[in-house]
Amino acid sequence: MGNGRDGISPSKVSSSQALLQLEKSDLGCGAGGGENNVDVFRMAGLTFLTNANADDPREKGDEMSPFKHDTPVRICVADTLEVEVIKDVFVNVHIPYSVVRGEQIELKATIYNYRSSKSRFCLKISVQKGICLFGAAKTLKDGSQANTCSHLKDIQSSSIMVETFKVLPLELGLFSINLTLHSSLDKDILLKTLRVVKEFSYTVPRYIVPKTQLVKTLSIKGNLLGDVIQAAVKPEALKLLADLPQGSAERELMNIIPVFYVYDYLERTDSWDIFGSDRTSTEINLLRKMKRGIISVSSFQRQDFSYSMWKDGEASTWVTAFVLKVFGQVRRYMPDQFGTACTSLTWLIDICQMDDGSFREVSDYKPVALQGTLRDQERENRMYLTAFTLIAFSEYKKPCPFQKFADAENRAVGYLLENIAHSQNTFVLAIVTYALTQAKANHPDLHSAYLRLKSEAQVKGTPPAYRFWKETPIKFDASIPSEGNARMVETTAYTLLSVLLKGDHDYAKPVMRWLTEEQRFGGGFYSTQDTIIALECLTEYSILIKRLTLDMNVKASYKFQGDFHTYQLTSSNYIGRPVDASLKDDIEVCAGSNTGTAAVTLRSVYYVSSISEDTCDFQLKVDVTLDEKKYYMSFNEVRLLFACAKYKPRRRTGQFSSPHAVMDISLPNGLEANEEDLSLLSNSVDQMISSYEITPDGHVVMQVDSIPGNEFLCIGFRTTEIYRVGMSSPGTFSVYDYHDPDKKCTIFYNAYGEESLVKLCEGSECRCMEAECGHMQPQLDMSITLDTRKVAACQENIAYVYKVVIKSSKEEGSFVKYHAVLLEPYKLELLYQYPLDDLTWIEWWPSPNTACDSCQAFTESLDEFVDDLFLS
């Protein structure tokens, strides 16, 4: 067509013109070629014969023939045949999930011989740079080490042999270990990966571990619920809100609550557009998460429709009220999921409500706020539980519109109004005030309680920049997490909810400012209950300020180094990307004259070598003994570990036993807990532990309802040595209150009991194994010359040269901290606490009173070195 052939113009041709042109040379296939397929061939001059539509009638006799149903023809596929293929001779080795830097690890390589005759073999091992291999024959240019096959060994037919080799991780990360088995007729190569981790847990600091890095990260959010929204959408982020052990109803509820508050905020403010095209899928996903959480919590429901803290446990007033409150909130968006809620309310009224309108706890489980046996403390506890239950009742006025529920609610309101003036605890006063305000109790005593609560506020700044409440008379250090801080958040949050219900928004601003600054990385706070109430505050306040369109230009600068980072926040871009900050300068943040609210977070994290006992409420001890029993088919050593804890009574507050507690035992590398023992402890009649879990990194985490203050509670189980570890880091035993996890008590223990720590090398063989340690030079070594000392002292990476006298030493975990007095400084830097590593040169300097044959000459050589160092 394009060249104008057959009378068609080279210009643009319409489709109708093209079809008409095609018909001129039609051979029966073009438009109008025939009425049907037969006519197409007829008009083309062809005759097509077929029997496709022919009938072939036949007559059959009267006899009946058997009926047969022919199955359609299919392709037959035989069942897969699983064939196990093994080599005649091969090697395998068990590598642990992770090992700690600085621990000597003895690994066992197993050689298998499936031949009917004996074989000769040699095992060659090579490791990457960063791993020290004991007995390595050579070190390559890339830093890797390997042994050599110097001689062959015999392995009998149809048997196995074990070859051990020792390694010492010197650096952090993933490292390859290559094993090559050379046998008479074959070669087998095995590649394994060794994960090397730091000596201690990654946590908020007090005592930094030597030779580890401090990380500072700056982040900003233009939505008070920004981190919580991210946590609700991303499953892995939800754990940051409450990093607590699994197994309890309360922990399962924590999987629902953040998701609900996010959904509630998005729905009430119509802010689903922040997810863009993912709006529908995100909404469905959040509803699905809440439904899964409801199903999980329902497994804690008993036959009488109450709820227990543990599966198949005893009914609990507090847990039932807690579940009903959460279910009542979620019911706003999922009304068909809670058919038994009103029945559970009936159980609370019939079983738990007293004649005076208060509620009592019917189980042995008691959260932290219910502890105490003193007369005044009993009243405070009863008021707390009644207010906590009344808050749950307020969610069911429409779903359960029965007179019985209204009467029960009125009795509870009457009890609280009668006793609120006698409360001496600010926390109890805060929750009671909120419960009565939510119940719309219009009474002078409530108004007086509200004014009293405001008068007890802690205020910073004039006009107030921060406003918060603490449970008197607890003293607190705002710079470190403590029970005061966890309870302060919960007390402040309950007070803020009352303030918001009364519409006092200006008064609420300094409160919200303090609350947002207490929020931790990931969106959570300190514990479960304070996180729940604080998230409710953030949700309600965020809904109030939604009328402000977010449009902010936020600039972060170093105090001395200048500009650092700029954030442009909008409604669709409400979270700024976290960026790492310099450790050597302060950061200043300022915003232009834009609209919206934003919060800036600077997170600093490093490793700690020991834990302060300033806020420890428990006495701890660990006893480890070797189990002399012989177990069937077991060739590994078995030890009995007993971890014991005792609560330190608080006689001033009437607390003589702890509430819900967690016992966390970390097993050093090479040891494995016997799960049969733990299962027996959890399921026996006396049920010493309520729940347990074994984490991938070797922690045994157990939960108990209470730890007594008059005797030790001891939990014992067996541990099995899977592989040998030399110079093992100590294990840790930690105990803390479930509702206040920051107030943790920790001790170190030797997992091998009375045995001394194993050392897998001796003498000069340890040169590689001790590569990271400082070394003392031989005493009175006259072969060390002035030039040798000077070369060592004047290296660029040597910051200090001085003379000290050691005053004391103290073990801190895997480290020994020396305290010394500086006598004569020769070369100085700014740091005064640092590790003695492989770069450290240490020599003994005899004192003037030391008498020995070569002391004077040796001292003179040191003095000569010092004089030369000053002159140069």
Automatic annotation (TrEMBL):
Pfam families: A2M, A2M_recep, C5_CUB, TED_complement. Residues 47-125 form the Alpha-2-macroglobulin domain. SUPFAM superfamilies: Alpha-macroglobulin receptor domain (SSF49410), Terpenoid cyclases/Protein prenyltransferases (SSF48239), TIMP-like (SSF50242). SMART domains: A2M, A2M_recep. It comes from the Eukaryota. GO terms for molecular function: endopeptidase inhibitor activity. One of its GO terms (cellular component) is extracellular space. InterPro entries: A-macroglobulin_rcpt-bd (IPR009048), A-macroglobulin_rcpt-bd_sf (IPR036595), A2M/Complement_sys (IPR050473), Alpha-macroglobulin_TED (IPR011626), C5_CUB (IPR048843), Ig-like_fold (IPR013783), Macroglobln_a2 (IPR001599), Terpenoid_cyclase/PrenylTrfase (IPR008930). Residues 658-749 form the Alpha-macroglobulin receptor-binding domain. PANTHER family: COMPLEMENT C5 (PTHR11412:SF83), MACROGLOBULIN / COMPLEMENT (PTHR11412). This is Complement C5. It comes from Ophiophagus hannah. The gene is C5.
